[in-house]
Structures are given as structure tokens and as C-alpha cells.
Amino acid sequence: MENRHQVVILGGGFGGLTAARALRREPVDVTLIDRRNFHLFQPLLYQVATGSLSPGNISAPLREILKRQKNARVLLGEAAGVDVAGRRVLLKDGEVTYDTLIVATGARHSYFGHDDWGTFAPGLKTIEDATFMRRRIFLAFEAAERETDPAKERAWLTFAIVGAGPTGVELAGALSEIAHDTLKHDFRRIKPSEARILLIEAAERVLPSYAPDLSASAARALKRLDVNVLTRTMVTCVREDSITVQAHEGTKVIPTRTVLWAAGVRASSLGKALADATGCEIDRSGRLILEPDLTLKGHPEILVIGDLGNFSHQSGRPLPGVAQVAIQQGRYAASTVRARLQGRSRPSFPAFQYHDRGNMATIGRAAAVVELPWLRFSGLIAWLAWLFVHLLNIVAFQNRMLVLIQWAWSYFTFNRSARLITGDNPFPLDL
Amino acid sequence: MENRHQVVILGGGFGGLTAARALRREPVDVTLIDRRNFHLFQPLLYQVATGSLSPGNISAPLREILKRQKNARVLLGEAAGVDVAGRRVLLKDGEVTYDTLIVATGARHSYFGHDDWGTFAPGLKTIEDATFMRRRIFLAFEAAERETDPAKERAWLTFAIVGAGPTGVELAGALSEIAHDTLKHDFRRIKPSEARILLIEAAERVLPSYAPDLSASAARALKRLDVNVLTRTMVTCVREDSITVQAHEGTKVIPTRTVLWAAGVRASSLGKALADATGCEIDRSGRLILEPDLTLKGHPEILVIGDLGNFSHQSGRPLPGVAQVAIQQGRYAASTVRARLQGRSRPSFPAFQYHDRGNMATIGRAAAVVELPWLRFSGLIAWLAWLFVHLLNIVAFQNRMLVLIQWAWSYFTFNRSARLITGDNPFPLDL
Description:
The structure is a homodimer.
Chain A (H helix, E strand, L loop, with lengths): L4 E6 L3 H9 L5 E7 L3 E3 L4 H5 L9 E3 H5 L5 E5 L2 E5 L4 E4 L2 E4 L2 E4 L3 E4 L16 H20 L3 H7 L1 E5 L3 H17 L13 E5 L11 H13 L2 E4 L3 E6 L2 E6 L2 E6 L2 E4 L2 E4 L2 H9 L9 E2 L5 E2 L2 E6 L4 E2 L12 H19 L17 E6 L2 E6 L2 E4 L1 H14 L3 H17 L18
Parallel strand pairs in A: 1-2, 1-9, 2-5, 9-21, 11-12, 11-17, 12-13, 19-22
Antiparallel strand pairs in A: 3-4, 6-7, 7-8, 10-18, 14-15, 15-16, 20-21, 23-24, 24-25
């Protein structure tokens, strides 16, 4: 067995999992290493954070996915570093040797150097992030109901979302529905619909990576949902009870107890470790600068895929941090392994080429924007397309059914049954 | 509004919630206070702990349940004590006055004075308990796969369940299915089916509160599931890597990394506080000794329902800590309030009378025992009855559907898709 080519994949997200499955018929041994025992369908994580879905609905155990793939094994472990010369991955408690290493450890949210903001402004990358964000959102309404000081009540009912990319827009839309519909009859003192939802974006428009007309239609949809969009606005300070923003008109301190972070991401720390070990460069988001074939310079045996890599050979700009890129790169990485086993090597097989199949973001009930290579549209049809594509891409069939039922249910009843406030010690309410 | 009779209910479990709903047509103001924002269907908590269901599937937001009940309000809060003379509930951050107080704060698991065992032997009363237990169970298999020392691997694959009441039996059955079916093809090195599952019980038979023939058929079913039942066996020590048991044959130290606690419970600390405040007695499990009408001696305005109370007037023994008792007592408490508002008081209305509608426990796939007042049976029919009764009693209709689908799915595929290992910092694997 040890004579076979050893492929080690770090990370069981979209990229790593795709690479592992694409190697199922190859004469190699695949070791997939992840800190978590499940694959997470991140595009729906905001629905866990806003009480629509349960964590289990958007997760699938990695072992379950790969149980029938005889050449693959799963290892629960965390890579602490890579011994490039010895071709060994150093785990926190052990090591694994490789012939080919595929690194797909992704990114975490980042506070642009203000790590202290993290305490007050939870981000959204893991299941724990999502249940913590959910806790913060629903506790805020509870705290407002208990509050007697009107100014403090106002601060509890003010929600500031930082970053108006797809995640920020989705969170804002969901929060609006929570305030206006889900919690409509739930409280006796406060009116949840009086909640103020701010969506703060440094660029000049929401969904800045989309076409301007889609940004405009997203902005209109957000306005209908009573979301207060602040563009060209920078966040300069986040505290327990306020957020400070700076715009053309000047600086403003907004009292709020709930700041949700949907702004920057930073590549996982393994990027820096690999850069140090290989001499490869990283960009300012911590991503590794990749060769045209996704390898690290001077290390054809190391491929980097997904959010950890900066691949700029196609358009001069790095590819976006979306599932599609990771999936296509995962397939490419597997085909590289296959080609090499057959004795082919670059340039006899082509460089990686990203085929943008389109992007979509949902804003709320029956509102979404879709950007395809040949077509752009928004509204109900876009929303249905969004639902369909997301449902179809959830990994486990069982989860597809569960998500569908819960969506249908929520649509008709406006309920969000998974709005549990969990985590030990919910008191005092001021977190 | 303040002129209306104020009913304050502490605890939104089966008892408290039943009382609140039973008061919906009365001219009273109901305040339901709970530390959590959801009602938990505790009988299925073990299915969360064993990866079959997600927390959201067995929870329903209290505000959602009571949103249409105009005379009820929900307060997220934790009672620190009661000012009996002033008729005030003292919260950790505030106070609420009452005319009638219904106390339904239930019980926690207890380690018979060995609170240090709690670190190594998680119990099962809250959602957090369940996800922690789930983490422990599935991490144990992961750790075994990583272990190179055969003795240590054996300890990781040894599961000791303390207490063979319904919860212990259900956990043992589920663990057996996990080891033999769910994880069958998941690992490459270990054989999960070699896991050793011990069910430890101090009494002379499993399900000691059931009829002896049902205990015997449960014991046979457990044997078929490869569960090692140790009756007349006391636990004398629990450590990180072993459990010490004492039986007629002597004392034995069993190396294990996973001890699950399904033995004793202890009434919530509010029991002690109320005993101190009213001079009422508590039993050695911390339960308040109740009057025949569920009130505390000398305090007709305070009713205690569910696991917090010791009601022995019917059979001389305290009623069991099951949902049925709490529900019937909740209804009785509401009827007491109603009767008093109509000017009636004891003895013009009867003492509380428990009607035992039967008990059931499931052991595993197609195996359960049912004990009705006029009939006892076990096996497939009992299992179907168990499924039916539990499905029917889940509070939210949506959850009923979600649970049904997941059960059907698990039944045919042997999969447990909610087997996520969550919680921060999963490493090092030795917890």
C-alpha cells in the first residue's frame, strides 16, 4: 500500500472534497485531513445564523461521503505545518507523508488588523460562528424586551451588518424578515418591526463584485425590506455598545449591541507556514501566490486550491473566494495527479482555467439577483433559481429534503423554528 | 392590567408550558419565565446525543408556542430566589410579582455527591449536554482510529453507560447501532463493531421501574445488540481514562475514555431556595415535599409541578420524573387557579390524582417495551407504538415532519446525518 502514490488533502471543504472524490478511480491512496468530521455547505450558513436551518441540515459527515471510496481515508486532525523537504504534513499530534499535497484549508473572517473587534462583531465561517451569531441576534430582542431605558432598548434593537457582499446582503434580508414577520406577535412590550437594520459597505454600492444594475436592484429590494444601506462608509471602531462609521459627511457613533461581521476574510494560517517553508509569496490577505497550474513555485508536488490561493493568471485579479472556484480547482488538482501518474507533465497539459458559471445572491423572500455569463436578472425568478441551485448542491440527499421542507414551511408560516439561543450561561443578558 | 390576577410560571418544560396554555381562557395575566427561549422535547434528547436528530428538531421557541395567547408573556430570565412574603420572584436581573406562583424548574442530572465525575461523565438534560455527549461519542471513534497503542485504542472503543433506566437503555441501543451499522464502512483501521458497550446498573435488572418481564425482554434485546449489561453493579469512581465498578464478585477498574451518565437526577437549586424561604421540607434528591394539592405547606399561592416536587400522597412513593406527571400536574395547577378565581377552594375541589397512562422505552431498531395499565408488550409493535406516541407529542408540527423523515431515513440507510463534532478546539483528541 505504501508503494502507491500518496495524495494528502488538507481540508474537506468544497475544494478538498472535490479533489478527493475526483481521485476515486486512480491508483493512489488519498488521505483527507480536516479539523472537523463534516463537510459544511457554507453558502447556507447564514440561514443557521438566522434560525431557519439547523447545523445538521447543511453538514454531511466526511466519512459518510467517502465511505464507499476504498482508496480514501479520512483523518480528523489539524495541520500545524509542512516539512517540505521531507514531504511530511505535521499534525498537532502526529505526521503524514505525501507524494502530492493538495492544500485546501480556506480562509477565516478577518477584522483588518482589529482583532479586538471580534469579541463584539462575530463573523460567519463555522457552525460555531453561526450558532453564536444566532444567539446574539435573538438575545438582542430578548434584552430589548427586558430593557427599561429607551436609549438602551434602541441600541438592542439596532443591528449593524458590516460588508454588503452576498453574505451581508443575505443576513440583512433575513434580519428584516425576523423583525417584520417571524417575531411579529412574539413580544408584548417591544415592536420587533421597529428594529433598525444597517448594512455598512465601504464600496460605493452593495454587492460590489456584481454588475451595477444588479447592485441597484439589490439596493431597491433592501430598501423595500426596510434595510438602511450605508455605502462609501468605513467602520473605524467596534465596541460592546456602539459602532463608529466614517463617511464623506463625517464620523458617526451609532449605539448598537449587535454588530455582525461579513466583511474581510484572511487565508488560514497554513498559508503563512507554507510561504515560510517554500519561499513562496503571499498577498496581503495571506493567500499564496500560485503558479498557472495551482502549484507553489519550485514545488510541483504542492497544489493549493480554494480560498487559500491567489490565482491571478487569468484576469490579473485573484479569483473570488466562492465554492465554484474551489470545486473547479479541486477537479484540476485531481487531473494533475492523474496526468503525472501517466507520465505527462506541464506544459503537455493546460494551465488551470476558471469558467465562471455565474453568481447569485438572495436578498429575502422572493428576491435575489443572478448574474450568468450571458444574462443577468433579479426578482422572483432569480430567487427560484437561487433556491434550486442551492438545494441541488447540498451534498447529502437527506439534507436536501430537510432543507426543502423547512424552506417551504418558513415561506408559508414566516416561522424560523431553529431560532434556539444555545450556549452555556445565557445570563446576564448583556452577554 | 395590574389588577388582574398575576400568575407567574417558572420553567417552560412540559409542566410549565402545559399550565400556561391551560390558563389561556382565564382572566389572568400569565408570565412564563425560562432561562432558555425554547421548549425542549426531552424524551428525544438522546437522539441528538447520538447524531440522529438536530437540536432544532426537538425544540420549539416558547414565544412561537404562546404568540397567539394574548394573556401570556414570555420572559427570558433565571430565577435566583423567591421573596415569599413580598410575593416576588427575584431574577438575576430584575423581579416579577405574583399572586400565584407555579414552580416547574425541573431537575438536573446528579452524581450522588461526586460532582468531580461530571468532567468525565456527561449527563443528558440540556441541548448543550446532548451536543457535548455527541462530541464525546464520535470523537472517541476518531481517537481510536488515530491511536497506535492497542490498550489505549481499546479504552477509546469502550463505552460505559451508567444507569439502565429508559435513557440509559436508549443510549446503549443507539450506541450499538452506531458501532455496528452507522460507522460500519467509515474507518480504515479500526472496526467500530468491536466497540464494547457496557450498561451499568445498581439495581438487579435493567429498567428497574418497569415490570420484571419487560425488564427481561429489554435485557434480551440489549444482548442481541451486543450490549454488555452489568446489573447489581455500583460505580465507585470515574476518571478520565477508567471507571471503577463494584459488584458481588469484587471491584474492577475498566479502562474507558467515554462514560455517559444516565443515573441520578437532582432537583433544581430553586427547590432548596424555596425550602429555606417557606420552611417546607425537601427530600434527599432536593425535591420539595408537596401537599395533596401540589402547594407548599402554608403557602397555597405556591404550586410546584414536575420533577421539582415530591408528591407521595397517592402511593406513598414519589411520582416518577416523567413528562406525563408534569403535564397532568400542569393542568391541575391551572384548574386550581381557575377554581380559586371562582371563589372555590380546597376541599371543595379534589386533591391531585395521577393517572398513569403507561410507560415506554425504546431499545433500538424495532425493539421497545410498553407498559400500559392493562397490558404489557415488547418488540416491533411496542417500537411502532413508541414512534407513534413520541411523534404525536412533539410540540411543533414542522418538527414532527422533520423527525419523521429523519427517522425513516435512518431506518433504511442506518445513517445518522447529524453526527457533527462541534464545539471549539477539538484538539488534542484526548479532550
